[in-house]
Known about the structure:
It is built from 21 helices and 18 strands. It is α+β, with helices and mostly antiparallel strands.
Amino acid sequence: MLQAIGLTSTPRRDLTSAVDDLTFEARSGSVTALLGASGAGKTTALRLMLELQPGRGITYFRGLPLHRVARPAREVGVLLGDVPGHPGRTVRGQLRMLGAAAGVPASRADELLGAVGLDGLRDERLGTLSRGMDRRLGLATALLGDPHALLLDAPSAGLSLRESTWLFGLLRAHAARGGTVLYTTSDPKEAARTADHVVTIDDGRLVADQDGAEFARTRLRPRVAVRTPHAARLADALSREARAERRSVEVVAEAGSRLTVYGSSCPEIGETAFRHGVLVHQLADEFGDTGPEPVHHPALTAALAPIPLPRPVSLPAGGQGSGTVPAPASEADTAPTRAVIAPPAERRAAPRTNPVTSPGTAPRSTPGPTFDGRGPLPRPVPPLSPRPVRSPLRPVRYELHRMFGIRTTLLIVAAVVLVSVLLALFLARTGGTPPHRLLVAWPAILPLPPAVLGAGLLGAFSFGDEFRYPALAGARGTVPRRLALLLAKLAVTAASALLLALLVVAVDGAALRLAYGHAAAPVPDNWPALGARWAWLAVGCAWAGLLGAGVFRVTVAGVAAVVAVPTLVVPVLQTAFAGPSARSTAGLPARLRELAWLQWPTRADHWLTAVAGLVAQPVAAALVLSVSVLLCAYVLTGLRRRAR
């Protein structure tokens, strides 16, 4: 069960709260609709329930608030708006990436693709998906952790009738397994047709909290569906009698031989038709919409192709209400016709069997979709193993999927290697470049070599893509701990920068020796110190780009942070520490040995001296300062931020 108590959003400036003291519940095993016009506060209510927006109130998911749930992905699945994700990522890659963040096995992605009907699109890019396929992927994302509750914001918006029928079939199947489903909608007819419970809000306040049957009876306009070959005669007779009796009756002629009558009842219309000798084929009460048109699902069509669909015939109007029964199908009447949808209470009582049978025979048992009185149910979602995947490397798995799931990373690496090789060959031909700068293709005119700029760009994309394509922002249950996510990004970005720096040196050296001989790329004598400086330069710029994009939430800010190190920070440091020094750092390892409680080997003094010399370099010191400042800014602006 899901219980929302006293939800109130924080107002902006002089405006009123979008949600004001909203309290309701969604029961397990049922589908609940949160109904309201556009701007009524439905989305804000969901965000308050998920602790994504500041405000007051609390929401209990089976007795616990979300921030106290040990594994949120197993408790709640979320779909807010469109499926966020990089348009170049594949459908399967998107699910595996989010599955890594949620801590579910990689095979779960393939299981859900089969359940939502995306088996054939697993290698398609997100940018090529239609609206319906995008919504299927969103449901698969929400179901990754096999959650008990599903929270969906306008899931059927923009979908066709067929896609909407499939979607609500999946939601009803989830509720039939004992889950809780809460979705928002602005269409009262859709709520009456698909929900067991309807919560109506207006201007952020609760208007009504009703059962589905009560909602359809009291808040939707009742009407009578009539089908007759003499529609014009019956419409004229109903209008004349209503004017004579001074009753408000509205008769609407629809396609074919169908009439919709408002303000009357089945007995009254039947008596009018009898008095005027009008033949009636169908006469039934309806509330709101009559339901979807027949949907030709491929599996359903294949399973039921040999069986002619029965023609619905109305029961005689009387004190027990009205309904429909299947009439024998004739040879001339084998085309599927629109069935009359029973009121919500009757539909919920319908058994989950296939009602389409051949006259005089027992029901056929055929594979394929099952029915619950509202249409075909989709393939059941396979349950997730109750044994959780416990691993501290979950954020690392997510970051690896995020970085290498698109072509951008490989294109950056290829571009950096190509530019470095061409620049190294050009510098070797012109001469005058020191060997250690020649191997990394770093001319004096450039503030940074191509490999370092590429490492900074990889770091900037690491957080920039998170805010441009927020795969984790709307899914509260799949977000790793922010500190763990930051550490994973730092580790993966550092490893990528080191591999890129090593690759550039190896390829540049091989190209120089191939073009100009071994003498063109000699190995420097102090290569360990130069290698340490080169590695720190690559890792430091990658971290600067990562933290810059994380603080300012845009990729360009990360790139600007990388470029600012040699162009702004280094000149400032050189100006600040210019002039003769009155003190010297000589003997620093010995003084540290005196202060320390533990004694380390003498050889460690050489490493301390090397580290001190590395940090004393202008660019290295500028990187240390820049990364430290950006890390503190990220901690203050990112890790400290909480919704409540």
